[in-house]
Structures are given as C-alpha cells and as structure tokens.
Amino acid sequence: MDKHTVAFLLLDVAVIIAAARVGGMIARAVRQPAVVGEIAAGIALGPSLLGLLPGSPDEWLFPEEVRPLLGGLAQIGLVLFMFIVGLELDMRLTRGRERAAASISAFSIVLPFGLGAALGLLLYPSHDTVGGVEIERLGMVLFMGVAMSITAFPVLARILADRGMMRTVPGVFSLAAAAVDDILAWTLLAFIIAIIEGGNPLEVARIVGMTLVYAAVMFGIVRPLLAKLVEWRDSAGRLTPDILAVILIGVFLSAAATDVIGIHQIFGAFMFGAVMPKVGAEQLHREILERLEQVSVLLLLPMFFVVTGLSVDLGGIGLSGLWQLGLVLVVAIAGKFLGAYAGARASAIPTRQSAAIAVLMNTRGLTELVILSAGRDLGVLSDDLFAMLVVMALVTTVLTEPLLRAVYPDTVVANDIAAAERRALAAATAPRVLVVLRDPDGTVDDLRARHRRLLDCTTGYDVVLAGLLTSADGRGKRLEVGVPVVPDFAAMASAIEKLNLLGASLTGSGSVSVLCRFSADPATDLDAMTRNANADVIVIDAADRELGEKLRAAPVAIVDENAGAGVAPGRSVVTCVVADSRSGRTAAVVAAGLALFGSRSLTVVSAGSRRRWLADLRPVVDRGVRVSVVEPRRHQGESGAFTVAAGDDILHGRGPDVPVTVVDNTETSEEALGERMTTLYADAPESADPVKTTDRSQTTDTTRSTSSPERH
Q: Which residue windows are transmembrane per the record (predicted)?
C-alpha cells in the first residue's frame, strides 16, 4: 500500500464521517431516525449525486485502490451491527403475548414473501444478468421474497422511544412481533442463502447440516460459557477492556465460522448476539452498546453506507425503470402493511392500534440494507434492482414516522396510557395517596427499611405505589447504535415485581395498586400519574423535595425519614403547626388523616378560633380522634410528637424535628377546610382491610413482564 493510497483512505474516512454526521443531524431535525440521513449521505457521495458533477468527483475521491479498504471497514461495521441486532433480541419481549406476536409476525412475513416472490418472477427477465453472468431464477425469486419480509427492529425501537409509545398497545405488540419476525426472517434468509450458494441438493444439505451443528454448538456450549460474563462484569463493577475483548473475539470468530460454512458472516455475528446472556445482564448490555457506539456509529457503519452508495446509481434506473420502482414500492408497503394489519386484527387488537402496528412493521432501515448487501454479494441482484430496493428501504423508513403520527397521534398515545393507568387501579375504598418511589433499587426489604416512615404514613389510605424509573435520556447520553429496549424492559419488570411485593407487605392500608413509568421529565409524568390515579395526596421522600415542590396535580407530603427520630403517626401524638396559607391549611388536612388512621390524637397549633377548628375537624372528631387546639405562644412542644408543618412556614416548615412537610401548589380553587375534611374522612372506613391488588392485564405497555408491562 503506497502513501497515495493511505492518504486517500484517511481523506475518505474524514469525508465519510463528516457526511454521516451532517446527514444524521438533518434527519433528526425533520423527525426522522438518524440512520435515514446517514444512508442518504452515503448515496449522495456515490454516482447518484456526486457523480453527476463535472469530472466525476466520486471516482476521484474514492479511487479503485481505496474502495476495497473501505469495503473491509464496512464489513467490520456490518458484523458489529448484526451483533447488536442479536444482542437486542430477547424473547422476554413476547412473554404474555406469544400468540398475538406470532400471528402478527407470521402474517407480516408470509404475505410480503409471497408478493415479493411473485414480483421476482415478474422482474426476472429484466434483471437476469449480473456481471455478465445469468443468475438462477429460483435464487432471485426467493431472495426478493425475503427482502420484502424484513422489519428493522432497531429503527422500530428508536421510533417507539422517540414517540413515547413503549407503554401502548402498538408499542408492546409491534416489539414482540418484531422479535419473532427477526427469528423467522433471519432463519429463512439463512436457508435461502444455503440454497443459492449450494447450487445442488447435496451441497445445500451440507450447508444446512453444518449450520445446524454450528447452532447446536452456539446454544449448547458457547451460551453457558457466555453466562459467566455477567458475574465477571458484576465483580469488576464495570465492563472492563478484557471483558469487551472476549466479546469481540467471539463475535468475529462466530462471523468467520458462518462465512466458512457458506451462510454469510452476518449470521455468525447475529447468532453470537442472540446467545449472549439476557437475564440479569441489563447493565452489561447497556455498557456494550455505549462502547460500540463510539467505533460503530462514528466510524464503521458510515463506511458501509458509502460502500452501498457507491453501488447505487439512481440515474441508471431511467424512465423505463420507474414503473418497476413503483411496483417495488407498492409490493413492499402494501404487503407488509396488509399482512401485519391482518395479523393484529386476527388477535382482536382494535382497528387503530392494528393500523399503527402495521405502519411500524413496515420500517426497514439499515436492516434491509444488510439483506440487500448480502444479496449483492451472492450475485442475485442486478445493479438497477439493487438501487430500486435501496430506495424502497429508504422510502418505507421515511414514511413510518409521518404515517404513524397520522394513524396514532400524540393525543391518542397520551389517552391510551392514561386509560391503561386508570384500569390498573383498584376501586376506591378510602382517600387515595400516591407514593413516589424513584428508581427503586435493592430488595423489597431494602425498600421497606429505606422508606419505613413514608410507608407508615399510608396506613388507612388507598395506596398507589408509583415507580418512577429514570429513562435512558435521563440517565445520560442518548444511544444511537441501538435502543436498550430489553434491558429497560427488564428493569421495569423488576421494579413492578418489587413494588407488588412491597404493596403486599403493607399492613393497615386500603387497596394497593402499582403504576410504573420511565421518565425523562419526572414532574410532568408524576402530575399525569396523579391525575390518572385521582390521588388526593402525593407522598414523596425528602430526598426528592425539589421534585415535590414542582408538582401541581395534588398536594404533596414530603416525608423526612431522619427528622424526629423514633416518632411515628401510629404511636405518637400528631401535631400540626398551621400556617396562614394554602399549604398550611392542607397540612391540617394531612395531619387529620394521619391522626385518624394512626394514634387518634391530634394537636393543632394555630392562632385561629378554637371553636372554628373543632367545627372543621368534626368529621375526624366524630370518628374518635382527640383534638386539642393550642395557641402558638402557649405551645411548648410535646415530647415524641409527630409534627406536620407547611413548607412555606419559615419557622417550622423544614425544622430538624418535622417529619412531614406539606406543599400545596395545586392550581384549583381552594375549598373550605371543613368541606375538605368531610369529603376525605367522613365516609372513610374505620380500619381498612389490606386488600392488595395487582394488575396482571396484558392490554398495554412495553415493559410488561409477568405482571403488567408498564403498569399502565
């Protein structure tokens, strides 16, 4: 390799990286996946655009001696991408919805495959020669069928994450169907490649037999060995270079093995990702994605886009080929849409949600380019047909986002999530509190110990345990190489399970329900959850005081676990220091409830009329609560009192001996204090039986596990 070649290689790499980043930014600006802009940039650097300029600058910029080097980098990028596709494949996505996922996937493969094969028969006379060699009709027909059957799981997951649809019916079922689709489509493609490469029945049988042996080794030997990576990573506390090196060595050896077998290196990379440990490996997956993003997204995949773009000459299609391009687009869009829609409707999914699923299953993106690249390597796609199919991959991906917004607009997404959350709630039996538990780490016992006082304050109330998990966008940088869907789903499933167990352990509460969300905007999401739950009070830990002060949907009781050590509402006199403010009056309402369901003893420290206070507190007095009204100047403080104060009370609101601080920033008209007491406590049960409810429906949500996906 001479210096001239090296210089052009370095120049080309710089140009490609810059073009890919600019293309990705433009795509995101118009609400498209970044990969759309990156693919378009790769095509623009080829003969379709740059080659139209005088002097054919594409040939000067990418000389023949440099293109094989770019091709090598592109193949490495392709292998890493297919490893990520396999890594994100986890059949836990289908748990609880296996039949619907299988139905949608089967319909969305069978119909497009049949139409694609028929299209291959129709187009074969016009594209029967590749590089001067006549291709087999069967190979082209089968390949056209599988090319029309692909769904891009990574792009689909990114669109769902961007739209906030992972807790909706379309989000849940499209992801589950796409997981099944991946298995069926890639298996089918491997078999078709075996047929094409084999040429005769004996050779096909040899390739199939070796592939089965390879799969048995991967699942029977390699998979158990890889399971040790989780323990290795956990003991190290991070993804070390040694762990990543072991993974990459395995990826490339697996890819090399399938290339030798004759079913293309992409299958080896995909298979290695598929046999990576899934259960308990969520953090490992995220760290792998974060590491690979640096080299894959920035450097290697753009090489693949340009190598693909150099093979695409849109001008070569010509006017005579436009009808063929139109036919390709119609078959691709209609086949996938009608197939997925029929599968969803066969599973009794409503019309609008079925249409949204069908739109989502039509996205193809980079995954389609991988398939087409394999077809070009196999010699079953002519240059013109390859260009048409690349255009199809771009168009179907570009159409997904606007069509999805038309079929399933943001207002419907929000309404569906709210309706699902309301369905998850038990029937009201007492005043309802929404207990906020952010990122509930540790065991149930850990949560119980960490939030003992906060949970004690729920006695007598209907309880909604609201798990708020920091979303990927809230944790740090946004990943481009993949969306950690399954790790996030597993985290959600774990949180739901823990909150259900925690709810079952509560004693003296009314009904207990669980809601759980990912959130990049906790205040907005908590307000929405509060409205959906129709909660009377939000209870939050003092560690999240700043968040509590932002909430507007209901009054907030901020519980300090460390203030006033040893006191509790169930065994201590509840003392409310009432400020002359909205928060002060709400503090009296909260204190009255704590006394009613706790020690039955309430002291009100207020300069107001004693008679008026007793009248306002009549609903709890009639229920057996002993009430004392003391003027502030005469209040000496009671040893062991459980104090409730208003957050805007300068003297008492954040004192070291105030376990509960109340903040009322609601924006509704304030009711009279006596009316609020009557509404909340007049008909409340004397002692609430601990009726625990958990929503096990599979109607909505992404993160469903064995209980309920996102508890919506």
A: 6-27, 39-57, 69-89, 101-126, 138-160, 172-195, 207-227, 239-257, 263-280, 292-310, 322-343, 385-404
